[in-house]
Amino acid sequence: MKAKETDRRAVIVGASSGIGLEVARLLLAEGWLLGVAARREERLLALKAEAPERVEVMTIDITSPDADQRLQTLIQRLGGMNLYFHASGIGKQNRMLEPDIELHTVETNALGFTRMVGTAYRYFAAQREGGILAAITSIAGTKGLGPAPSYSATKALQATYLEALEQQAHQRGLPIHIIDIRPGFVDTALLNDDFPYPMLMRPEAVARDIVRSIHRRRHVRIIDGRYRILTFFWRLIPRCLWRRWKL
Ligand SMILES: NC(=O)c1ccc[n+]([C@@H]2O[C@H](COP(=O)([O-])OP(=O)(O)OC[C@H]3O[C@@H](n4cnc5c(N)ncnc54)[C@H](OP(=O)(O)O)[C@@H]3O)[C@@H](O)[C@H]2O)c1
Question: What is the pTM of this model?
Fold first, then answer.
């Protein structure tokens, strides 16, 4: 992407580990100025140490009501924002429907997501030049998954929310480009439960695909090709068969 330095200001929420961290590193290598946020400050500071003059750090817990204000402060400190990338999220298998897990997942992936994405969208709506709003949802949102009900339901919420924002931006004539990133299984701390996940991808490879998708202004990107085929077919499976499917 050829752009002036003022067009290359990105905020990444969820940059302290996994996919968000790898995307942050790739954008730094391209010369972007970054505002990075998450709860674990020491990890954000370690990322800042890689390019101290180009990284602003802010601790944000997206489940907290002050997260909106903290994100606005981070954008201000960065001198503006052209790209908002939402990578924060949690997910666990929860076959026993442990209430704490179910509810905390909703707080983070549904409430926290809506809070942060809303702040970024309103910011872009108020700027003449708009911006790019990209978020990692998941292929898990394309079907109700018995082993992780809250996770798959909140990922479906995120995808539907982004689709709604895309339509709204278009109809209001706002120059906001929305990108829904849907990876399959990625080898990060999110999958640290010893379950033998098939078709596991490296976060570095997924991050490269995400950055390319941002440059190419994709709308929905399923990563990778194997998962594009898988989700195409499993969407065709009728409910009477889906309920028998062993996951
Ligand atoms: N790994 C996969 O197989 C996979 C597949 C599809 C989609 N995804 C999605 O990709 C995204 C990134 O996950 P990952 O795999 O990279 O896992 P990860 O390494 O665990 O990263 C999760 C990120 O979310 C942040 N986060 C969690 N709760 C937060 C909160 N309350 N406030 C602010 N930040 C919070 C974490 O930072 P702190 O803990 O420092 O706050 C961390 O930076 C998630 O939305 C996940 O659902 C992952």
Answer: 0.97
